[in-house]
Amino acid sequence: MTDHTTGDSARRRPAGGGRRRRGTAGQDKPATIRDVAARAGVSVATVSRTLAGNYPVSETTRARVTAAVEALHYVVNVHAKALSGGVPGPVALVLHDITGPSLAHVAAGVEQEAAMRGRLSLVCATHGDPARENDLVQLMREQHAAAVVLVGGAEVDDAYHERMAGYAHGLASAGSRLVLVGRPPLPSDAPATVIEYDNRGGAFQAAAHLLAAGHRRVLFLGGETRFATAQQRRTGHLDALRAHGVPYEEELDVPGPYTRTSGYLRTRDALRAGLEFTAVFAGTDMVALGALAALREAGLGVPDDVSLVGYDDVPFAADLTPALTTVRVPYEDLGRSAVRLALEREERISGDDHVVLSTQLVIRQSAAARG
Questions:
Q1: Which regions in the chain score pLDDT beneath 50?
Q2: Prediction pTM value
Q3: For 328, which of 31, 144, 303, 313 could close a Cys bridge (C-beta 3.0–4.6 Å)?
Q4: Mean pLDDT of the chain
């Protein structure tokens, strides 16, 4: 019987011939590039060149290296390759909440465009915590992400601008790029890309549609006014009132969170307070869904008694009864544009660093002429 420690069989077995190396405590360890080189009978440099594909090697050598990699289940140290520029950096998407239907479509656009360009995409949620956002941005900088895409409403003030400028300069120093989606642009000296949509114009279209149909008392269920997105939609609504000569009435301007529950409660409370209105302009489709429930609970028909419009055009909007008139936001295009502009800049292709995409009013059955 051959001695497996000192016998001929051991001498003939290449070093690292097993799938794992045994550690000093008897635990398995991942195979290293040196193990691959020993098994294939080539140098470490040859393995590195073969795996990188940036140096000519013979087919025989390539086959031996490939066989050794598969036998040892060797995994390339991607972080080390990223540091040396051997692999393209990922695209990181940082948003408030991954469950929201509109933000999910932005994420889909980011993932699709990143995949098409051979990039890994990472999705991170902040849950509205600025400290977590800061930690995630710094982590992505350390991971050498090609771009960090921030999505979601923000309280725009001096502190916000200072924080975003810090992100932008910090990422730029690491060869990365900050991309703001649906957020206002930063001062011109900040190295950031901004992808916006015509938020104010979309709100103008929605409100004007109701006013042109003869409605003069429109209950506006806007968002929390500390957020830039909500401010822009409210401004669009006020623009439409002025354009149609309809005076602003504070009692009809009811801000709140962009949730279904908030839409229901705000509409229910307005009805219970005896507030008169013939139409509801909901700041999002989720808010519209809550408003619809409150109107039906009060025995009111849509659009026979009260017209209703939303904002976003999320997938369920067309499936409601009646189908919801709303403003379509190109969320997937926002995600795609974020990746495209960031990576094209990285590849030194000229392009604009501030893009505004258009919105579109989608007319369905939930809004009708007054009377």
A1: 1-20, 23-27, 82-84, 348-350
A2: 0.76
A3: 313
A4: 86
